[in-house]
Specification:
alpha/beta; Elongation Factor Tu (Ef-tu), domain 3; Rossmann fold; 4 domains; 6-stranded mixed β-sheet; 9 helices; globular
Length: 388
């Protein structure tokens, strides 16, 4: 007499379900070999839950002659963001995947879309492609939002100082505080405790990203806008801020833009003991002794054939030196924030381009796996070897 297996209990049902699932997976793998089932699913639903996080380009909207807003539909595992944060976006250009960090230019949207605004850097690889070559329907890679350049929860009297595309994280904050509708700018309850002045710098009026948005916010009384154009007013002297913003000493300053502006603001605010929060596009260069540079060995494997050797000066980042030699290195924000470019320094010395600090790896003395360094903000300070 045979006895049927007990599948009525939770443990029995779970065991049978697991066995069936495993068998179905084996059948699926056999059916699509040499691919994997996930590869086939990617063709039909690349944005599905559990898949590698990606997004599909919905639109590329010109902002100026050299800037565009990229509207994206993220995968279902997108966790959302706080206005002011950035994401890392991966895009394939000429068969090579590049990662860059861009600020999100809006708050949470009901349609679930997200957007970044990119300014094409002359001679760049990724930004000109995104602005002029990207097409709707393209799939790009994403990482979850990150960054601490966000509004204080309790509001207050704030000053934003932005230059060029430094407006991108700030416009995300402003759009979240003061949404625009067909009827005009809305001032919801969450904006009631914010008193905001925006000092925005641009080379000229036609080069001003989000000019209409800023003007509309100013006209609605949501912000007070102070626009400065280099071709009309000259380059801003930060000492003039107290004239442009008479209550400067009563405001917390949030600034985003080129390193020169942020460095000047840091010195100015430190001298006046004023609070300053900054977001940098690129790392500020170390102004002291940059070192002599040296021979950099980028090693992929153990043999000599697996190595690429380049000569680099002391002012060029390891990332730039490697890419110029055709070495494929991990990268992200390229300004020392996201840590997407960290690799082991196996031997030799490198110098941090932000502050001149040396990192030295000596075989037999330092960790066997090498010392982690950020290639985007580190330069050779003598011969060194990088493991990829």
């Amino acid at each position: 007499m045979s006895v049927a297996a007990d599948t009525g209990s939770p443990s029995g049902a779970s065991t049978v379900a697991s066995a069936v699932k495993a068998r179905l997976m084996q059948v699926a793998e056999a059916a699509v070999t040499p691919l994997m089932p996930a590869d086939v699913l990617d063709l039909f639903d690349p944005l599905r839950k559990g898949a590698e996080l990606r997004a599909r380009v919905v639109a590329v909207e010109p902002e100026t002659a050299d800037a565009a807003t990229i509207v994206l539909r993220p995968g279902r595992d997108w966790a959302g963001h706080r206005p002011g944060q950035f994401l890392r976006l991966g895009v394939d250009v000429d068969g090579v995947r590049h990662w860059r960090a861009y600020s999100l230019t809006h708050g949470p949207r009901r349609d679930g879309l997200i957007s970044v605004t990119v300014k094409a850097v002359p001679g760049g690889t990724v930004s000109p492609f995104l602005v002029h070559g990207l097409r709707p329907g393209t799939l790009v890679h994403l990482e979850q939002a990150a960054g601490e350049f966000v509004l204080p929860a309790d509001g207050g009297r704030l000053l934003f100082v932005t230059a060029g595309s430094g407006i991108t994280p700030v416009i995300g904050m402003l759009r979240n505080l003061f949404p625009a509708t067909d009827a005009g700018v809305v001032r919801p309850a969450r904006s009631a405790h914010h008193d905001i002045v925006v000092v925005h710098l641009a080379p000229s009026r036609p080069d001003t990203i989000f000019a209409r948005d800023l003007a509309a916010l100013d006209a609605a009384g949501a912000i007070r806008l102070v626009s400065r154009f280099d071709d009309e007013h000259g380059v801003l002297d930060v000492a003039d801020l107290a004239t442009l913003v008479p209550d400067l000493d009563q405001r917390a300053t949030f600034a985003c833009g080129p390193a020169g502006l942020l460095d000047a603001l840091a010195a100015h605010h430190e001298a006046r003991d004023l609070p300053l929060f900054t977001e940098r596009f690129r790392a500020a260069a170390f102004v002291g002794d940059a070192g002599e540079g040296g021979t950099v060995t980028f090693r992929v494997g153990a043999s000599a054939a697996d190595a690429t050797v380049v000569e680099a000066d002391g002012a060029t980042s390891l990332l730039d030196a490697g890419e110029a030699a055709g070495v494929l290195l991990p990268s992200g924000c390229r300004m020392g924030v996201c840590f997407g470019c960290v690799v082991p320094l196996r031997e030799g010395a490198v110098r941090d381009l932000r502050n001149g600090a040396l990192t030295v790896a000596t075989p037999g003395e330092t960790a066997a796996g090498g010392l982690p360094v950020q290639t985007c903000v580190s330069a050779a300070a003598g011969p060194c070897e990088i493991q990829l």
